[in-house]
Amino acid sequence: MKLKRLWGTSPFKSSYDAVMIGGGIHGLATAYFLAREHGMRDVAVIERRYVGFGGSGRNTAIVRANQRSQGNVRFYDEGLQLWAELIRDLDFNMMFYNCGNLNIFHSEAARGAARLAVSTAQMSGVKSLLLDRKQCKELIPVLNIEDNITYPVFGGMYHPPGGIVRHDAVAWGLAKGAARYGAHIHQNTEVTGIDTQNGKVTGVQTSRGRIASPRVLICAGGYGALLAQMAGIRLPLHPLTIQAMVTQPLKPVLHHVVSSGAYHVYANQTLKGEIATGAHMDPWPNYTTNTTPHYFKHQAEALVEILPFLQGVKFMRHWAGIADMTPDMAPILHGNDPIEGLYLDVGWGYFGFKSGPVTGKYMARYMAEARRPEILKPFSLRRYEQLRPTGETAGAFSYGPWN
Amino acid sequence: MSFTITCPICGKRDLYEFRFGNEERGPAPDQEGLTPRAYSEAVQMHTAVGGPQQEWWYHRDGCGVWFTTWRDTLTGRETDEKGNIS
Ligand SMILES: Cc1cc2nc3c(=O)[nH]c(=O)nc-3n(C[C@H](O)[C@H](O)[C@H](O)COP(=O)(O)OP(=O)(O)OC[C@H]3O[C@@H](n4cnc5c(N)ncnc54)[C@H](O)[C@@H]3O)c2cc1C
Ligand SMILES: [Zn+2]
After folding, report:
1. Are B46 and A225 in contact (CB under 8 A)?
2. Pairing relation of β-strands A101-105 and A155-159?
3. pLDDT recorded at residue A279
4. Which of chain B's ends, N or C, has fewer CB atoms near its CB within 10 Å?
């Protein structure tokens, strides 16, 4: 059988109309939309390792649009709607499983925060409901709602349109789509410098030589701060190692994404039957991808309290990636300031998978028109000095029984 | 593998006993003529070095002291000022 490659290798040119630094879904999506929506086809995606090496191939694939602040919900909701269109246009099955998300809470304080988030969603036309503990049990029969655990369940925030999308398929599908329009994807190529002249970006230095370009996008996931440093820009980012793991495969038993801020855990059953679960971040900066026994223990303890059927089930694999966390839990989507032609798509923390394609769509518009699209206004880098954070940290996940 | 750092009072201890207190930023900026951007640059922005950096730690589950030490963010290991594992 002759196998057909999804995308091929391209000649390494010395100039492009736009260069994306990072071959994750953000860079690939931006290249794809630059070509599809703006006719800019002479573009390159520069990737140090291989497509999907970063967060794009390591995330736990959860998608949803039930954030705390309106600016976020509007953006993520468009992201959620985009999957169906992408799957059609790319002719690539991304296995969108819209099983719905249940975020359980364990205190009055968290219930209050969840109520506000539900109101935000409802005012934005996004389906989100507040459930009491009995309704949570009706939705997820394997959930423990007894009082015999550390943090008994008070209720939940149920978001039917969310779910899981297969992350590798997203990266591969977008790479295929971008390449189809003529984008060059250069793997095993490291960006080592960003060139500027008179306040304008002029290109990048790479391990394979210099590339001239009037538009450069930093979309290097957890490594974004290191790229920004090359242009002399400091950001309010902490790169934190975030861990995830899967159990051995089980028969279908858990039909929703379940998450809990107080237990600091989330879990869902993949289409292969494994329980994929994660959340822990060591709260100090690291560009490493180590996993820790400290966390396996935490994860096991939390899971058997809220999903007791998991007692005795084995973890099969574990891994980690880097989450570039901003202080207000929202990304920085910014351009032409302080350097003309230099764009930032960073600070996606552990929420940049669900938003990859929609961010690509709007960063492409930003770069093509050199004007910030309205929907990206809440995500300016300057919001920090203006003391106008997004308000996302007031989400239900921040409140526990200790509040 | 478990990581450690060295408390000046208690010695080498498990990293999970400590609380991270940010990278060392040098002296606070002069209040005179301080603009919002310069203030933000000093208190909100990080360098987020890839490599050894000096940083603040608090021995939360120990003696309660605040101190600075060096750590390599590319390996997670405590180092000396030159980046060598101490
Ligand atoms: C364990 C884990 C779980 C997560 N779970 C979720 C989730 O459930 N839902 C969700 O929405 N998000 C989740 N995320 C976050 C999400 O994965 C990221 O925000 C997203 O993948 C970022 O995509 P990206 O394309 O911007 O960056 P990445 O996919 O990280 O790609 C950046 C690329 O840049 C490359 N690069 C770095 N430096 C250079 C250089 N100097 N030159 C060239 N290339 C370079 C890297 O090799 C990398 O491939 C999770 C992340 C992790 C780690
Ligand atoms: Zn001590």
Report:
1. yes
2. antiparallel
3. 85
4. N
- What is the pTM (predicted TM-score) of this model? 0.97
CATH architecture of B4-25+39-79: 2-Layer Sandwich (3.30)
So what's the architecture of A18-60+167-236+328-394 in CATH?
3-Layer(bba) Sandwich (3.50)
Best probe residue, ligand 1, of A103, A164, A192, A348 (max atoms within 8 Å of C-beta) = A348
Looking at beta carbons, which residues of chain B come within 8 Å of A289? none
CA of A56 to the centre of ligand 1 (A): 5
Q: How far is B72 from chain A (nearest CA, A)?
A: 8
Q: How far apart are CA A286 and CA A210, in angstroms?
A: 29
Residue B1 pLDDT grade (very low, low, confident, very high; cuts 50, 70, 90): very low
> How far apart, in whole angstroms, are the C-alpha atoms of residue A256 and residue A284?
31
Conformation bin of residue A311: beta by default, left when phi > 0, alpha when psi is -120 to 50: beta
What residues in chain A have per-residue pLDDT under 70? none
Residues 59..78 of B with a Cβ closer than 8 Å to A: which? 73-76
Q: Are A359 and A338 in contact (CB under 8 A)?
A: no
- The domain locations on chain A are 18-60+167-236+328-394
